[in-house]
Each structure stands twice: as C-alpha cells, then as structure tokens.
Amino acid sequence: MGQLGKDPQHNTFSLWQMTSIITSTLIGVGILTLPRTTTEKMLEAGWLAPILGSIFAFFVIWLIAVLSRRFPGLTFIQYSPIVWGGHEHSRLGFWLSLPWILIFIGVLFVSTAITSRIFGEVVVTAVLQDTPLEVIIVSMFVLAVFLCLHELDTLARVNEILFPLILFPVLFIAFASFQKAEWNNILPLIRVPLKTAIMGSFETSYSFHGYEIMLIFFAFAHGDTGKVKAGFYGIGISVFVYTLIVLAGIVVFGYEELQKVTWPTLELVKTTQVPGLILERLESAFLAVWVAAVFTTVANGYYALIYSLRQLLKKGMLFQRIASIVLVIPLFFVAIRPQNIVEIFNVTTFLGYTTVWISVVSPLIHWLIMLYRDRGRRTEKRSDAHG
Amino acid sequence: MSQFWKAWEKRKASLRAAVLDQHANKSMESVPDTILSSSLEENIALLEKQLGKSDDLVVRRFTVKNGTEAAILFIDGMVDRNVVSEYIIRFMTSTSVTYEKTAVNELESTDRLRQTIRNILSGNAVLVLEGQNKVFLNNTRGWERRGVEEPKTESVVRGPRDGFAETLCVNSALIRSRLKDPNLRLKHFVVGQRTQTDIYVTYIEGIAHPPIVQEICRRIEHINIDAILESGYIEQMIQDSRWSPFPQIQNTERPDKVVANLLEGKVAILVDGTPFALVAPAVFSQFYQSPEDYYERFYIATFIRMIRGASMIIALLLPSLYIAFSSFHPEMIPSRLVIAMAAGRSTVPFPSVMEALIMEVAIEILREASVRLPGPIGPTIGIVGALVVGEAAVSAGLVSPVMVIIVALTTIGSFATPSYSAAIAIRMLRFPLMLLAGMFGLYGIMLFIIIILVHLSSLKSFGVPYMTPVSPINLAAMRDMVIRMPFKWLKRRPTMFHPQDEIRKEGRQ
Could you tell me if the ipTM is greater than 0.85? Predict the structure, then answer.
C-alpha cells in the first residue's frame, strides 16, 4: 500500500470517533435491565442514579486520559512497564506490570463473554424461540472475529458509522413511550435516605463499565487535547440515554411494576405504538437494530483484548487474526457456563463490582507512581543543576 | 511462522516474475534495440524480418525527385491511404525539398529499430531513405473507428450527449475541450507486453494530491500482464482490495463526469480501445451520484438522490425483509395485511425463502438474457418473462402475488443506480441476505448488514476511506452527498481527496 497508509492523519482516531467508541461500548445489554436495577434501591428517584453514578465514570475516564496524555502514542500494555520499572529496569517493570495487564485482559474476556450471553438470552426469549442459544452467541462472536481481522482504523470507522444506528432507536423508544407517561409516578422526587441513594448510584456505575478499553484506544488519538473531551462527551451521551430510558420506564410502569419484569426496556418497546406506522409490535425490530449496539460492545471489548495480547507478546497482524479466531473457543465456553438467568445476573453484578474497582484502582495506582517518579526526576534534575 | 510465510510469498513472487519474464521475451522486448544502417535494402530486410514477412505489411518503393531511392512501410488498413499517396509519395516524387518536410503533421525521425517497429504497428507510415541511417515516422493513423456518440450506459435527461469513443486521442480531446486549464496533465504509459496499450493518467496539477497521483502511476507501472483489452483490466490490477464485491474505482463513459471528478482532485485514467475511463480514488457515495444532479436545481437533485438511496435500500433489503416478516415475525404485520398475504400464499407449496430465491434467480436470468439479446428482441424477453411467466406463475399457485410485486420492485430499484458496477454488487449481496433472513429473520438481516458495514469501513481507495464522508465524518463533504446544496455553499472542494487548492470559487454570489 506504500506511503499513503502511513499518513498519520489516516490512522489516528478523531475526537468524534473516540466519542462514538466510548458511547457505543458503554451502551450495550446493560440498558435492557437498567430501569429495574436503578429503581431497586432508589425507588421513584431511579432516574437520578445514572447521573450520580456517572461522577465515578467521569473521574476514571479523566484518570485514563491523563495517563495516556503522559505517554502519548502508548497503550496501557506499553506504558505500564515503564511506570513500574522506568526506562532503566524494563525487566522488573514487565513483571510488576504483568498482574495488572492480566487482570485487565481477564476482565475484558469475561465481560465480552457475558455480554454476548445476555444478548443471546434476550433474543431467544423474545424473538427467536426455536433457535438454540448457542447459535446466537456464536453468530455474535463471528461478527467480533470478523472485525478483529481488520486494522485498528476500521474499528474506529465502524463505531462511527454504527453510532447513529445505536442512538436513534433508544431515543425513539424513550420519546415514543412518553405518550403513555403517568408523570405522577416520579413523585415524590426524593424519598430515600442519602446513604441508600449513594449505594444505589454506586451500583449503577456498573453499567458504565466498558470505558476501560480506552486504556488501549486513547493511544491512537489525533492529538492530546481531545482525549479528556472525548471521554466526557462519550460518557455524557450515555448518561443522557440511560437517564432518559430509566425515566421512561418509571413514568410508564411505575417502580413497583419495574421490579417484576426481567427486561423492562423490552417491555417499554412492546407498549410503544406509533400511529401511522405500517408495522406493529416493534420488539423484534428493536432487537434486530439492537444487534448493532451489542456488536459494538462485544467487538470493541474483544478487539481491545486481542490487541492487548498482540502488544503484550509483541506480535503482528497475523497473530491478531489467528488469536482472534482461536480465542473464540474458550470465550464460548465462558459464555455458556452460567446455568440460568439468575446466575448470569449474579455474574454481571460481581463483574460490575470488580470492574469498577479495577478500573479505578489500576489507573489510580499507575497515576500515583507516575507522579512520584516525575517528582523524583524533577528533584534529581534540580540537584544536577545545583551540583 | 511469519518468516516461513514471508519466504513462501517471496518464492511465489519470484516464480511469477520468472514466468512473466519468459512472456516478455516473446513480445516487444524480443526486438533488438539496434541502430539502423544507412542502406535502404538492409533496413527494409531488417524490418520485414522482424515483422515475420506479414502479408498486411505494405512496402512501397519509389524514387524521390532528386534521385534517392526510398520506400514507405505501413500496415494495410491502419493508415489513411490518401495521406500516404497524396502527401508523402506524390509530394516527394514531385518536389525536391529536404526529406524532413513532407506535408504530414507530426513528423519524427529515429534510428532505433524497436521504436520503428512500434510505430509501424500503431499505424504510422515509416519512410526509409537510401543513405540515411534513420527513418522518418509520419503520423498517418486513420483506420475506421466509431465516432463520438451518446453514451449507452449512463444516459441523462439533461446534460451533454457526447460520450467517450474507443480512440484515446479523441477521448483526451473531449476532456481538453471542456477543461481549458493549462494545468491539466496527461501522463502517457504503455501497458501490456503484447497489446502495447496506450494509457493516459490525467489530473489537474495544483488540485490533485501528489501522493495519490504518484501511487496511481506506481501501480500502473507495476502492472505485469500481456494484454489490456479494456479499462477493466487496469481497474482490477490497481484496485486496493481484490476480494471486495464493491467497485473501488469508478468507470464512466461521460467526459463531463470525468472533468467534474478531475476538478474535485481525482485522477482519471484513459485507456486506448475502450470508451470507459476510470476515476480514482472513489468513495461509496459517488456511485449514487449522476452528473445530472449538478445540472438540475438543487431541490430536484436532492430529491432524486434520496430516491436513489431509497432504491438502493429496496434493492438490497426488500426480498429478505419479506422473508423475515412472513416466516419469523408475522405479528409485526398489521392483521388485515397479514390475512391478505396469507390468502395469496395459501396455494404456494414452497417456504417463502425458496419462493423468493427462485423468483430472484429467475429475474436475474431474464435480466442477463435481455442484455445479451440483440436490440429489438431484448425488450420482448422482458415482457414475456415479466408479464407472461409472472402472471402464469401466480395463477398456477406457484408464487404469491406479493412476491411478484416485491421482485419487480427489487429489480426496478437496482436499475435506479447510476453506476452499473455498484448496482451489481448490491444485487449480489441480496442473495446471502435472503438466506440469512430465512435462517434468523430480522436478526440475520442485521448480522449481514453489520458485516457489510465492517467491510465497507475497512475498504480504502488509494488511501481514501471508502465510506467518507460518513465515516470518518466530514461535514463539509456531506453537503454534497445525500443533499446537494446550492452552489453558493459548495465553495470548497471535498477535502477527503486532499485537494491542494481547496477553494472552488471566491467571493460572494
């Protein structure tokens, strides 16, 4: 392909591309259960939970962006050894950073598997009753592998092109269901004690996990300026969508009823009627369009996973292609491991919990060590200047 | 592992090169590039020997007025005999001027054998003189060619009626006559060891991005093939991804389209012997644009572009949506419609996937048959196929009436695309979509759409991402994608092709 492919303008992510990567990774299967999980503790004020819970996500994405700004052009896999060992002790740095990298990869692995499993459950219960669950899961993995066969800039463009396809149906459903809204359902505005509210919001921050893939993808940003902005836009858009969907759920059903349905957002779609439209019962159509949202979550996670492995082992494109095909097999077995929906929800709760901690603790520790090192270097330089 | 792979690739490449070298030896390179002698007889003998005493080689001997023996050599049928006899032979036998001044324009001289042979083969008359160790090449090309006619594949309601012809110089003149820009550049290449086809790479210096021009020239220079019979050969040899169903280089018969593309900073490739010029780099959206969009006022153009977009979606999705709805999601269709559909389908013995596949294959056969048949019979096949067979199939209860409507709409939708090569890609992708719709319903359709989108996003045409301006998003270029803004807002050239001179026009209007 020659020189044209190496043009830096072509192979880096623009602000808009990073925003769409973050938003489309965040919006996935979580939104199908969100109205139920948020109202569990917060009751009528459930719609406040995404807003409060996002504070946490904003902080973490800021931390990730700051780290990435400190090491421009390097991914987490590349800069973690530098943080731990510095440039002089690269071997030590590698071994110290390995646990963090492995945890990161492991979390991506499990969450990718579980996301596709949940989506498979939804499709099998709601639309394709006769199709085996495994077929749906495998078809999702096929799409993810197909993306992994391509270069990194393809991922950015795919996210960009699917972004409206993800955003539009949710907004449509939310606004269309406001026709049947019973606005009294959100009153009284604040009834729960503050401690419960904080606990509830904290649990909602699980639904924001997914932004940790930016530990990898921020390395390919155009410049340094856009990273924090992209992170904030990306999470901001997801917060808006989440709040709107939870609000729609509460005003249409009321929080008591929401506790009794497995997939409240899907119920919301079923109640939606659009006058003048040729089609009725939109849930099949919604789920079909929703494939795009789940695909971006699964495929971005899987791509980040494969790319991390590729960088960790310092391999090339051929390795990425082979690894993406081979790793599907263990991924599939992880996905079908939970026996039933209750078990899946237990896993997701646990996963959300660990992800939140890991995605905070890991960047925070890296950041602190980096600060310490930078300070040390500065004093060293100063003493050099004096001496 | 990868090293082994590389070594294997290398070995394959060297083998391929060796085979091509062998072929090359048999072609023009086999002619020794020697210097001609000063003897007339020797030179004639040498030329005749190189051309294998071919019977259509005419050697006409005569004496110039000042007594020098001379001969003129040309291939029968490729030269304008009138020019040869009137302006060369009669002129030289009756006047005693210096030899260089025959009354033919474009006179060159050479002392190289290879160039002489090349000129004879491309229709020039070669003048050989006793005592001169060089020959004179007279441009006397003049064989029968089709003239400039209306393009058959891309017709417009409003717009110029002239299309490219098979002659390279006519085609380049059609561009020149529209674009009187001194910065228009035509770079000449000769491709094909046996056909020795002439190619012009055309661009406007100061607008086209130099790396793109260089890359196109580099790829053309690396073409290693013995024959170029149509620009499609060039297209397939220089495109970025050979596995893609989508065309990555546009072909057109219309000079006005080529000029418009040159002005956007693209590069056109003209090939001798075909009326189809190539335009590169190409993005997906331009296959759904017609030059007419700029000749009509912008409301009309925008409306027509939206219609084309809708027809593309119909051509791609309609049959698979029918399959998905009728066999997986009947609850989505309003009850009255579903009853009507079920009544039509009640006698049909096949599942709807088979019904749709049979009908779509039948319509493809009809389309191909009507293209291949000679002019007057073609439409008859269409009428017999569409009306008679369709009607009979419905009344025999083999196909449901809704299916006939859907197949008809799909076909008409696919013909609304201005570009044939893009339309055929869409028509092809319809079949896997139908199969997936038969397996997974709407879910299957969406799976395949995502695969298509990932593939489209991964494509690049000479470094320009194929899906621009949608992704990477380019708001300025979007003014001229689905919507065609008035010229007032199209002051800048689309930036995705990296034009050097971005401003199309200055000042306010």
Answer: yes
